[in-house]
Design a protein that fits this description.
The complex is a heterodimer of chains A (425) and B (652). Chain A has two domains: 237 residues, P-loop containing nucleotide triphosphate hydrolases (Rossmann fold), CATH 3.40.50.300; 153 residues, Up-down Bundle (Four Helix Bundle (Hemerythrin (Met), subunit A)). In chain A, 48% of the residues lie in helices and 15% in strands. Chain A is built from 17 helices and ten strands. In chain A, strand 1 and strand 2 form a beta hairpin. With 652 residues, chain B is an alpha/beta fold. Chain B folds into two domains: 231 residues, Orthogonal Bundle (MetI-like fold), CATH 1.10.3720; 240 residues, Rossmann fold. In chain B, the strands form two sheets. In chain B, strands 7-8-9-4-10-11-13-12 form an eight-stranded mixed β-sheet, with helices on both faces. In chain B, strands 1, 2, 3, 5 and 6 form a five-stranded mixed β-sheet that branches. In chain B, helix 20 links the parallel strand 8 and strand 9. The chains are: A alpha/beta (425), B alpha/beta (652). At the A-B interface, helix 2, strand 6, helix 5, helix 6 and helix 7 of A face helix 1, helix 9, helix 10, helix 20 and helix 21 of B.
């Protein structure tokens, strides 16, 4: 299937004036968007995400590269060709206050997008506008009013009505919900999703908000300073990012859970201390980091709607079958793999070594004391507590994971060399 | 279906909004000065147009027995040196002048508007050619040109006034051009392009309405100048040849007669002055109306009336409102902040009480329009004009702030209480380097010498972890990134070693990774110095990351207070719960979010009972029947919901 929108090696240059240098806004960006899909475009300010949207809309001319819409090259489309396209590609902009001409009525503004459709009678036009306005939750009385008479959320509804009126196949949503309050934002996101289901319209969804983009998109593209850093399925990009920049973005986004935030902060600080202090107290700091991240993993898992210790359970069954120091290390490793954020994929490479060292050191200590069984049992209890949703228990257990055990309680009764991980129900 | 019509705004809101959007003419007509000028102008124009019928005498009719007559019943404005009636001559002469003005204005408007709008909208070579043409025209000496034209066309007024219109058009073109450029950048013009409008359609529908205001102002000035120039031409005897009257040659006559009779100057010069003045004043009125002001219609006020007022509340404490804690750094007890509207005032913040303990971080959460920012403005007494703060008490470290004078209050702002705003770059003065501004703050709050201040400023910049403090100190605010500017703003707030830092959406304008750094910095600073923090935000993530306790505000009231962990995991008030649920963080991707229908009721139209009632899923009759008190849930926690006390339903 040919994609609806295909962007190939797009580069945009903003010419500097006077002493100001030229600025590369986009460099060799390639993207695809299929019919009915939502491609989320994330990046920080200056990443070129809005420039890309404006190129698709024909508001900015690229220096190089091609944009193909429905199999037709529209890169250098003339103004009249653009006008013909206007019923196919539409836009909803960020600012609900300035996206309407304050001097024109809602009817005048909304029906503007019908200009280039085959001519229809005034009554027909009005009927379509009214039907569309009603679909977005506004009533007919809005027609004769002026934009200033509506709230930000209402105006954004009207902007959506205006964009979807000519039944476009692609809508560029440039930070369409960023200026709205949380409750209004949810209303608008729902409206966009519903309209997509009804009409099969594709969205190019541009935003700086990772959670919004995760919520809306089927695919996500990450831009950094004009370059495409990462692109893929929405779930993959947000949960198993491969690029450091994407990881940084995800690590920096906040969640409304004080426990999770506290543990994330603790891990973040442990990393910062390690990064600062390479020689001094490497062992202690490495241990701190491991503990902090293990706690974070458990807390994050518990914050899920339905907490499951899946990776841990799998590792436990494998450990029981295999045994040995390696299996202990695998167990600890599985603990961090519980959540995407603490997984190996999300951890900076520089920290990986510290974590591995600490992990090996800790497990070797258990094994040397001949208490591998105690450790495995603790892990099993932890997994059970997570599965049972026992928040306090699980968090207490992970904090006390490396507390020394009474010899007689957990001793395998064998030397350090043998690790009998028998069944201990 | 999620699409829900948002709650109706009040009539007041509608009226104000309608004014802003469309009421250009009504706003224009509400200025008495403009109305008077327009009437005067209309009388002059109609009088001149109907001169052959209304003038009492013929313009050339002489009454040699009655020369230099003073105003009388026969001759309302007197007679001139040949005994001709001045009023009649003025009315007849005005026809020439007004026609001249009309010609000049028409030519100037046509050229200026087309040139300016085309240059601004189309850009490219059109812009280049049009603007160079303007430069060329501006370089032509106008007066010489006029005299040449008059010479060539044998004192033809029409030719002269058309030339004048051309000469004056570049100024108008430039005004229109710059207005067009401003409008061109508006998202609605981009929207029109996306909608597929041609450039001509965009110019007609969008640009024209945007440039109309400045253009009309400029055109009124052109008209006034044309009036003066026309009179000047007549005065020099170049236009209308005597004895035919024109306003210009009447002044010449009056001037020659000055030693004999000075009165003649009054009507002849006066009419020119009146017309010119009227045109200019109408121009000013157009400008004001366009900018959304109606300058003439404001009621009389004094500056004192506009200053923020502070007073004690009239209503006694209601049950459930906790008395201030002893150990608090800041204790706000029953504070109401009102803004003037119309004749009365409407509350924006309604009877808010809260404490901040030393070292504690308190979040004020809520949607826009709920009064979060006004609450802290009330505490800091940094308020819009005419605002009124009523409070039983606002104490900072035991000092009653409400009883302080403005000057005394100043010594607390910045020193005891630091403040950082949402817009870091615009909170700094663009004219000075950031280092200078930081040193200034240090010197102001600590009274140190210049050298010491520089050192402290350097320390502060290190404390907020700015890389290369020496380099950054020499930069101007616009040269900094948002994150760096916010660090400078924090350093400046720390200059007075505050015990309480108030931050109004400190990270909303920043990128996520920078937000994270700033929040970490705030936490570290608090841990080092034991400073308390009030953080205003709408982002639950920021609350969870930064704060110990949270106050949720809705429609001017605090509706719930609790420690952050409780409020996020077990919210009590239905609004808090709904707000938490409507976040897309952690929601199932591409599934509909649970939404709160409707919108926050605006100040002035708050219902009697629970203000959230119209949007609440658990609403019952009792919710609307009367004042809803804050129900205490122990340990400083509470919720303003009748169900809190009633049963466990809300907690479920």
């Amino acid at each position: 299937m040919t994609p609806l929108l295909e962007v190939r090696d797009l580069s945009v240059l903003y010419r500097g004036r006077g002493r100001r240098k030229d600025k590369v806004a986009l460099e060799d960006v390639s993207l695809n968007l299929s019919e009915g899909e939502t491609l989320g475009l994330v990046g920080e300010s200056g990443s070129g995400k809005s420039t890309l949207g404006n190129c698709v809309l024909g508001l900015v001319q690229p220096a190089r590269g091609t944009i193909t819409f429905d199999g037709r090259d529209i890169t250098g489309a003339s103004r009249s060709q653009r006008r013909a396209l206007s019923s196919q590609i539409q836009a909803v902009f960020q600012d609900p206050y300035s996206s309407f001409n304050p001097h024109r009525t809602i009817e005048q503004s909304v029906s503007e997008t019908l200009t280039n459709l085959p001519s229809m009678s005034g009554a027909e036009k009005r009927a379509r506008v009214v039907a569309m306005l009603e679909r977005v939750g506004m009533d007919q009385s809005a027609l004769a009013k002026f934009p200033a008479q509506f709230s930000g959320g209402q105006r954004q509804r009207i902007a959506i009505a205006r964009a979807l009126l000519p039944e476009p196949r692609l809508v560029v949503c440039d930070e369409s919900v960023s200026a709205l309050d949380l409750s209004v934002q949810a209303q608008i996101l729902n409206l966009l999703l519903e309209l997509q289901r009804e009409r099969g319209v594709a969205y190019l969804f541009i935003t700086h908000d990772l959670s919004v983009v995760r919520h809306m998109s089927t695919r996500i593209a990450v831009l950094q300073q004009g370059r495409l850093v990462e692109e893929g399925e929405a779930g993959t990009v947000t949960e198993q990012p491969t690029q450091p920049y994407t990881r940084r973005l995800i690590a920096a986004s906040l969640t409304a859970d004080a426990d999770v935030q506290e543990d994330r902060r603790r891990a973040r600080r442990a990393m910062a201390r390690l990064a600062l202090n390479e020689t001094d107290d490497r062992i202690r700091l490495g241990d701190d980091l491991l503990l902090a991240m293990e706690r974070q993993a458990v807390t994050e898992t518990l914050a899920q709607p339905d907490p499951r210790a899946t990776t841990l359970t799998v590792a436990l069954s494998r450990a029981e079958a295999k045994g040995g120091l390696d299996s202990l290390i695998e167990l600890r490793d599985a603990l961090l793999e519980l959540t995407p954020r603490t997984s190996e994929g999300m951890t900076p490479a520089a920290m990986q070594t510290h974590l591995q060292e600490a992990r090996t050191r800790r497990c070797a200590a258990w094994s040397a004391r001949g208490q591998s069984g105690v450790f495995v049992r603790r892990m099993r209890d932890l997994a059970a507590a997570i599965d049972a949703g026992d928040d306090a228990g699980a968090r207490a257990m992970v904090s006390a994971l490396d507390e020394p055990a009474e010899r007689e309680v957990g001793s395998d009764g064998a030397g350090p060399a043998s690790h009998t991980l028998g069944t201990r129900s | 279906m999620s699409a829900v019509i948002e709650g109706p705004s009040t009539d007041e809101e509608f009226r104000r909004a309608a004014e802003r959007g469309a009421g250009f003419f009504s706003r224009l007509l509400r200025q008495p000065l403009v109305v008077v000028c327009a009437l005067v102008l209309m009388i002059v124009v109609v009088g001149c147009l109907l001169a052959p019928w209304v003038s009492p005498y013929a313009p050339l009719e002489q009454d040699l027995l009655n020369i230099y007559a003073k105003p009388s019943a026969d001759h309302l404005l007197g007679t001139d040196q040949l005994g001709r009636d001045i009023l009649s001559r003025m009315l007849h002469g005005g026809r020439v002048t007004l026609a001249g003005i009309a010609q000049a204005v028409a030519v100037c408007t046509a050229i200026g508007l087309c040139l300016g709008m085309a240059a601004g909208t189309l850009g490219g070579w059109v812009e280049l050619v049009a603007m160079r043409l303007c430069d060329l025209l501006l370089a032509v000496p106008g007066l010489v040109m006029l005299l040449v034209v008059l010479g060539i066309y044998g004192n033809n007024e029409t030719a002269a006034m058309i030339t004048l219109g051309v000469i004056m058009s570049p100024t108008l073109a430039r005004v229109v051009y710059s207005a067009t450029i401003a409008v061109r950048e508006e998202p609605y013009v981009a929207g029109a392009r996306v909608a597929g409008l041609t450039s001509l359609q965009i110019m007609r529908r969008h640009i024209l309405s945007g440039v109309a205001g400045p253009a009309l102002t400029q055109i009124s000035i052109v008209a006034a100048v044309a009036c003066l120039v026309e009179a000047g031409i007549g005065y020099l005897g170049l236009g209308v040849t005597p004895p035919a009257p024109s306003w210009g040659n009447m002044v010449t006559d009056a001037q020659q007669a000055m030693p004999l009779d000075a009165w003649m100057l009054v009507p002849t010069g006066g009419i020119i002055a009146i017309v010119t003045l009227s045109l200019t004043l109408i121009g000013n009125g157009v400008r004001d109306a366009y900018m959304g002001r109606s300058s003439g219609s404001t009621k009389s006020f004094s500056w004192r009336a506009l200053a923020a007022r502070v007073s004690q509340p009239l209503t006694p404490a209601r049950p459930g409102e906790t008395p201030p804690g002893r150990e608090a750094v800041l204790s706000v007890n029953r504070m109401t902040v009102s803004l003037p509207r119309g004749k009365g005032e409407i509350p924006i913040v309604d009877t808010v009480s809260f404490d901040v303990k030393p070292g504690e971080a308190v979040a004020i959460v809520g949607e826009s329009g709920c009064g979060k920012s006004m609450t802290i403005s009330g505490v800091l007494r940094v308020l819009p004009m005419g605002a009124h703060v009523q409070a039983a008490s606002i104490t900072f470290k035991g000092v009653e702030l409400t009883s302080l004078s403005e000057r005394q209050m100043n010594s607390y702002r910045g020193t005891g209480i630091g403040f950082i705003s949402q817009e870091p770059i615009s909170s700094l003065n663009p004219a000075f380097t950031v280092g200078h501004q930081l040193e200034e703050a240090v010197r102001l709050h600590r009274g140190l010498s210049k050298h010491e201040a520089r050192q402290i400023a350097h320390e502060l910049m290190t404390r907020v972890r700015l890389p290369d403090p020496e380099v950054v100190a020499k930069k101007y605010p616009h040269e900094l990134s948002g994150g760096m500017a916010q660090r400078i703003a924090i350093a400046r707030a720390l200059a007075g070693e505050p015990e309480l830092l108030i931050a109004d959406e400190p990270t909303t304008a920043l990128d996520v990774s920078v937000q994270c750094e700033i929040l970490d910095l705030l936490r570290d600073l608090r841990e080092q110095s034991g400073m308390a923090l009030i953080l205003v935000t709408h982002d639950w993530g920021v609350v969870a990351e930064t704060c110990d306790r949270a106050l949720v505000m809705y429609a001017g009231q605090i509706v719930e207070r609790a420690d952050v962990r409780t409020i996020i995991t077990r919210p009590t008030h239905p609004y808090t719960r709904a707000l938490l649920h409507s976040s897309s963080v952690g929601a199932a991707p591409r599934q509909l979010l649970p939404v709160i229908a409707g919108a926050v009721p605006p100040p002035g139209s708050w219902p009697l009972g629970c203000r959230f009632a119209s949007r609440c899923g658990l609403v019952e009759d009792a919710c609307r029947s009367g004042f809803i008190p804050m129900v205490s849930l122990g340990e400083g926690a509470g919720a303003r919901c009748i169900r809190t006390a009633q049963d466990g339903l809300v907690k479920a």
